[in-house]
Write a structure and sequence with these properties.
The structure holds 2 protein chains of 2 kinds. Chain A contains 9 helices and no strands. By secondary structure, chain A is an all-alpha fold. Chain A has one domain (about 1-210). In chain A, α2 runs parallel beside α6 (about 90-120), α3 packs parallel to α7 and α6 runs antiparallel to α9 (about 185-210). The longest helix of chain A is centred in the middle third of the chain and has 29 residues, at about 90-120. The relative contact order of chain A is 0.14. In chain B, α2 packs across α3. Chain B has helices at about 40-50, 80-90, 100-110, 125-135, 155-165, 180-185, and strands at about 1-10, 15-25, 30-35, 55-60, 65-70, 140-145, 170-175, 190. Chain B has a domain at about 1-60 and about 140-150 and about 175-195: P-loop containing nucleotide triphosphate hydrolases (Rossmann fold, 3-Layer(aba) Sandwich), CATH 3.40.50.300. Helix content of chain B is about 30%, strand content about 25%. The chains are: A mainly alpha, B alpha/beta. The interface of A and B includes residues 17 and 84 of A.
């Protein structure tokens, strides 16, 4: 219960910060919608479903990257991460709370983006939506972990994409597979396995990321 | 409470601290002095548990929950109010009677009237007062204070003096300063870093 309360307090703080500053979610929304609008006109009129699915997953990935890049900015500006690390709560609570907040921003952006995609391209199947939900979990778990690693370096803006994109390749493989395959079950299972594996890894090793 | 032997810290090739021996007994008031770059902040970060030594030994006989660390930065969120910042830390430290304790500290450090204002609107001195509230919120056994008088005006400095007088002997204090004369009335020991 204490752990859940710590995560709740930290996640609430992140949501409150975004409510005040409004510098992450609007940027994510604008980016993802603009991407779909641009590709709606850029892709040939009868482009395949495969191409449109690929576009969807690339757009989701880069929208998430936008949010992940901002995730630890409030902590970096005043070195508040030191204050959180000193608190007696389990340090993984910082990662989990930040992942939950980032997931909330990404989900909010997708609530607008997915209908826009369906309108501009080939519609959306249930398997694609399930794939997006599973992919979001993995993206936020891994991305938040890497964001915490990158934020203490000078080349943070460069480092996060360099670390994150290779690790996100399985998400794209699973996501596109779930969107276009006849039987998406095994791709959804693959995404679920990715989520569990990386969530456990990030949860267990976050402490070492935030200790000098 | 703190015992260090040949304590050192490297950041890659750069050596930030080396060969420090230190014994701070429970209830002591230890003042750390030294020129810029001598390793005062690094020593304090090590003692607070924010960094791990790369050389020597360090024992700090107090749990993380009982350490209060005042850094160069206030470690508070600029977009949150004083009340929201202290409430967050109060929850994370599981402070009993959190609201009453927060109210008492804000009153003491003259921030009660601006408790609903965002920290971004505070002066540097007010932010430092808020940082002191944060440090004292959970009643720490060990206080690690890095240049605590920074940015405080005369009234703020007097408030801090009064607070340190109250703490003297009751809590262990490790404090770095460029002005040892200011802390001379409280100090029980001094460590000069070269």
């Amino acid at each position: 219960m204490t752990y859940a309360a710590d995560v709740g307090a930290l996640a609430r703080k992140d949501l409150l910060l975004e409510l005040r500053a409004r510098d992450t979610l609007p940027a994510m929304l604008l980016f993802v919608v603009a991407t779909f609008v641009v590709f709606h006109f850029a892709l040939p009129a009868h482009s395949s479903q495969l191409a449109a699915s690929g576009l969807l997953w690339v757009a989701i990935l880069f929208t998430a990257l936008l949010g992940l890049g901002r995730a630890f900015v409030p902590e970096r500006e005043q070195r508040v991460l030191d204050g959180l690390v000193l608190a007696p709560c389990d340090r993984s609570a910082i990662w989990l709370a930040k992942s939950i907040a980032t997931l909330a921003f990404l989900a909010a952006a997708e609530l607008v983006a997915l209908p826009v995609f369906a309108l501009f391209f080939h519609g959306l199947g249930g398997a694609t939506v399930a794939g997006v939900v599973l992919a979001d979990l993995g993206i936020c778990a891994v991305g938040t972990f890497l964001g915490a690693m990158a934020v203490v370096t000078r080349a943070r803006d460069l480092l996060l994409p360099l670390l994150f994109l290779p690790l996100a390749i399985p998400i794209v493989v699973g996501g596109v597979g779930a969107s276009v395959a006849g039987s998406p079950g095994r791709y959804l299972g693959f995404l679920g396995l990715y989520d569990v594996l990386f969530a456990v890894l990030c949860w267990a090793s976050f402490e070492y990321v935030v200790t000098e | 409470m703190i015992r260090a032997r040949q304590l050192g810290k490297r950041f890659g090739e750069k050596r930030a601290l080396r060969g420090v021996d230190l014994d701070v007994a429970r209830g002591a008031f230890a003042v750390v002095t030294g020129p810029n770059g001598s390793g005062k902040t690094t020593l304090l970060r090590l003692c607070a548990g924010l960094a791990l030594p790369t050389e020597g030994e360090l024992e700090v006989d107090v749990p993380r929950a009982a350490v209060g660390y005042l850094a160069h930065e206030p470690l508070v969120y600029r977009e949150l109010t004083a009340l929201e910042n202290l409430d967050l830390y109060g929850r994370l430290y599981h402070v009993p009677e959190r609201r009453e304790r927060i109210g008492m500290l804000l009153e003491r450090f003259g921030l009660w009237e601006v408790r609903h204002d965002r920290v971004a609107s505070y002066s540097r001195g007010m932010t430092q007062r808020l940082a002191l509230c944060r440090v004292l919120l959970h009643g720490p056994e060990l206080l690690v204070l890095d240049e605590p008088y920074t940015a405080l005006d005369a009234a703020g400095a007097e408030l801090l003096d009064a607070q340190l007088t109250e703490l003297r002997g009751a809590q262990t204090v490790l404090v770095s300063t460029h002005d040892p004369a200011r802390l001379a009335p409280f100090a029980t020991q001094e460590l000069a870093l070269a």
